[in-house]
Specification:
By secondary structure, the chain is of the alpha+beta class. Helices cover 39% and strands 22% of the residues. It is built from 25 helices and 31 strands. The strands form six sheets. Strands 24-23-27-28-26-29-25 form a seven-stranded mixed beta sheet. Helix 10 packs antiparallel against helix 20. It is rod-shaped. About 6% of the residues have low confidence.
């Protein structure tokens, strides 16, 4: 039945070749109970591994029923083990986290048995080896003798014609060892039993053949007639005759063919898909520590993929700030700029109509304030800056304090910060404050700061319940003399969402001022005078006044100028009144009518003033501050901003706004102004970034998974020894990872949907924003991507397992 013809096994370690055994020729027949003996290192265990197909051989030929096996590949050798070999290992090689039933069941599932057949057969085999009461006990809790009985039961379950056992009693007490040998002897009536043993006296009464090895060669091959103790086992089904005879080198092909036909071999089926899923699910939940670790890894993989994809979508929807750099400072994606179709101003009914539109968070009536930062100080800016915009007017004392003269008194500079102004409509009135209250009049402000920022408690105490001055930060000279005094009546912390919204803007400020609507209207004049273009008209002559790059001439507030007049320097007067040259002294013109016209995206207003000339060398037009207030503090709003709850739905929201009769400008539209080449390059860049992120994520997860799954290497090596092929191992591994992946995906999906629709106070605002980019079809795409990565993980891991023989893979793990 089984023949070895001059077979040799060699090992190569660091370039040194050693022989496991050499030139071994043996012939085995059904019904034999063979003991292989010899001192340690003689090659007996190596010979057993070659016979059982766990290890390869390099020389000679091994035949099974006359068929040579030297040309067998790994799949052929797996089929050989599955059909012909049942293994009993010295170290048992049981799946310790499986029960007795599950260990025996495993080999039947690998052989292709269906669920209906398995149960009755497993129960019968467990009964035969006397382990009925331990059926549902994990093998890790059994004694050595009981474990060996499970190993024998597992070998019996396959119904293979050959059972090989390596030191099956080496770890057992005398009584247990005797029981095991008797059990093996009883099995040899219709099988070939080959055992390796150091204790020959223990098996001598039962064996029919003794093979002794020395230094890798056969030293003795002796057959015996069966004793009375085992005579009852001589014949069995098939009428096998085990009478002694002389070992023959010849091959009787007719005999082998006949023997093969009457010998029952193990089933040649494959592990079914259903049983693959069952084993994978069992493995997923059998080790809680491994399950939790892998679950964490797959949650990391899933959320990492979600974040990478969301970042890709976010980049796709990203705003090109540079396109609006000269016009808009605040390029928040939550902002939609509105004007009316007929060019008229907004009124209360407009505000209510817009706020009622779905996805509108609030309406910012003072649109210009979204573009503006202010100097927020306890002293006027003009008292600090000198002629060259340096801090020339500051006086420094020995203790390091900085002071300036204000109304004849020396005042210490206690704070000087950048600030932005927002409406109270943008936040809840139930908000908890650090100290103070919400503003109630136009002069009062609540300041919001970032918790843990640079403003400490001492500085906050210096600011609280004190007056501060606001001056425009948009230009150096136009706001000279233009300031708004405000009283700090409350202090609070900005929420994480507010901090992130501020960071999305291109502006930077340390303080956010919350003001009443009347207060915002008052403050809005500061940036208007600094940013609007003003036309000085005398008859048909027009002179443009405003900040660079439109003009080098500025308006400046000067309380010494008489109300209703403007004072212009010589070169401006000569430009406005060229026809008066020689007719009158242009530097003493009085009561000449001059029209000041403001032109901006916010409003258009005409005011008539008298003009007075001066021969001073100046580049500024002087006007009384109250006249500037009246001229630049708009009583009507021609442009506002609607702030979105989620910029993901900006297209739908803008459509609803436009249906209501308003014109919209969304800064994201600048992307449409890119050329086809720019769009293609940006698109390719986004894809490259996404692929790189996913690749890095995959390899990080792969190496972590590989470390965690190392605990399963023994399991899969054992499965291979039991006849599991590559498809069975990789399928079981894939099923296990898919079960854990789906649990992780469902958990992440639930969390993400909760964040998307209900928000989160725990997760960072940036993460919440990324989640909101994901649409329903994106979840399908993400599922497919993470599923593909899981399949690739399983493929890479399983392919590594089958690069080695089953025995070599097992040796590396034990």
């Amino acid at each position: 039945m089984l023949k070895l013809d001059r077979v040799s096994k060699f090992y190569s370690t660091n370039g040194v070749v050693t022989a496991g055994f050499s030139k071994v020729s043996l012939d085995f027949e059904l019904g034999e109970f063979v003991a292989i003996t010899g001192e340690s290192g003689s090659g007996k265990s190596t010979l057993l591994n070659v016979i059982s197909g766990l290890d390869s051989y390099e020389e000679g030929e091994m035949y099974i029923f006359g068929q040579p096996t030297s040309g067998y590949g790994s799949s052929d050798m797996e089929e050989y083990r599955k059909r012909y070999i049942g293994n009993i290992f010295q170290t048992f090689n049981l799946i310790n986290h499986y029960t007795v039933y599950e260990n025996v069941e495993l080999v039947l599932l690998l052989a292709g048995y269906d669920a209906a057949e398995v149960r009755e057969r497993v129960e019968d085999i467990i009964h035969k080896v006397g382990l009925d009461e331990y059926r549902n006990t994990k093998t890790s809790k059994l004694s050595g003798g009981q474990k060996q009985r499970v190993a024998i039961a597992r070998a019996l379950a396959k119904e293979t014609p050959i059972i090989v056992a390596d030191e099956p009693t080496g770890n057992l007490d005398v009584a247990s060892a005797a029981d095991i040998i008797k059990l093996l002897s009883s099995l040899s009536k219709d099988k070939l039993i080959i055992i390796v043993t150091h204790n020959y006296e223990q098996v001598e009464p039962y064996i029919t053949r003794k093979i002794s090895m020395h230094d890798g060669r056969i030293a003795e091959d002796k057959r015996f007639a069966r004793s009375d103790a085992n005579a009852e086992n001589i014949t069995g089904d098939g009428g096998f005759n085990a009478s002694p005879g002389i070992y023959s080198e010849g091959v009787n092909s007719e005999k082998e063919s006949s023997e093969k036909n009457r010998i029952k071999v193990a089933r040649q089926g494959k592990l079914s898909k259903g049983n693959t899923l069952c084993l994978g699910t069992r493995n997923a939940f059998s080790l809680p520590a491994k399950l939790l670790l892998l679950l964490f890894v797959f949650i990391f993989l899933t959320t990492g993929t979600f974040a990478s994809y969301s970042n890709y979508i976010g980049m796709k929807n990203g705003i090109s700030n540079s396109s609006w750099g000269y016009i808009f400072n605040n390029t928040s994606p939550d902002r939609v700029i509105l004007t009316k179709e007929d060019g008229s101003s907004f009124n209360d009914s407009d505000y209510e109509r817009i706020k009622a539109i779905e996805n509108i968070n609030y309406v910012e009536k003072n649109d210009l304030l979204m573009e503006s930062n202010f100097e927020f100080t306890n002293v006027p800016k003009s008292l600090v800056y000198g002629s060259d915009s340096g801090f020339d007017n500051v006086m420094y004392s020995d203790d390091g304090t900085e002071t300036v003269m204000l109304d004849g008194e020396e005042v210490e500079i206690t704070f000087w910060e950048q600030a932005a102004a927002i409406s109270m409509d943008s936040m809840s009135k139930d908000r908890e404050l650090v100290k103070g209250r919400f503003p109630e009049s136009k002069e009062e402000v609540l300041i919001l700061i970032e918790e843990g920022g640079f403003l400490d408690d001492n500085r906050l105490d210096d600011m609280f319940n004190k007056y501060a001055y606001l001056e425009s930060n948009n230009a150096d000279f136009p706001s000279d003399g233009m300031r708004v005094p405000v009283k700090i009546v409350g202090i609070g912390y900005s929420t994480e969402e507010e901090v992130n919204a501020r960071r999305k803007s291109t502006m930077w400020h340390n303080i956010t001022m919350v003001m009443t609507q009347e207060g915002l209207d008052r403050v809005e004049a500061l940036p208007l005078v600094a940013t609007c273009i003003t036309e000085l008209r005398v008859g048909s002559n027009i002179l443009t006044v405003g900040p660079p790059p439109w003009s080098d001439i500025w308006l400046v507030a000067d309380s010494s100028v008489e109300r209703g007049k403007v004072i212009v320097p010589q070169f401006i007067a000569s430009f406005l009144l060229p026809e008066s040259s020689g007719a009158m002294d242009i530097f003493n013109i009085t009561n000449m009518s001059v029209e000041l016209r403001t032109r901006s995206k916010y409003f258009d207003r005409k005011v008539n003033f008298n003009i007075e000339g001066t021969d001073e060398i100046d580049t500024r037009v002087h006007i009384h501050p109250d006249d500037l207030w009246e001229m630049y503090m708009p009583s009507e709003k021609y442009q506002i901003s609607a702030m979105l709850k989620s910029d993901l739905y900006n297209v739908e929201t803008r459509a609803l706004i436009e249906e209501a009769g308003y014109k919209t400008l969304y800064l994201n539209e600048t992307a449409d102004k890119q050329s086809a080449i720019e769009k293609a390059l940006m698109g390719a860049m986004r894809i490259i970034v996404l692929v790189i992120l996913l690749a890095v994520l995959f390899f990080v997860v792969y190496f972590i998974t590989k470390l965690i799954m190392k605990s399963q290497n023994v399991y899969y090596s054992t499965v291979r020894m039991l006849g599991g092929d590559e498809k069975a191992c990789s399928g079981t591994l894939l099923a296990e990872l898919l079960v854990i992946f789906h649990i992780a995906f469902v958990l992440c999906l639930g969390l993400l949907l909760k964040v998307k629709f209900l928000g989160s106070n725990i997760l960072p605002a940036y993460f919440v924003r990324l989640v909101r980019y994901i649409e329903p079809w994106d979840y399908v795409i993400l599922y497919i991507v993470v599923l593909a990565m899981t399949l690739l993980l399983a493929y890479r891991y399983s392919s590594q397992m089958f690069k080695k023989t089953a025995m070599n893979a097992y040796r590396e793990e034990v």
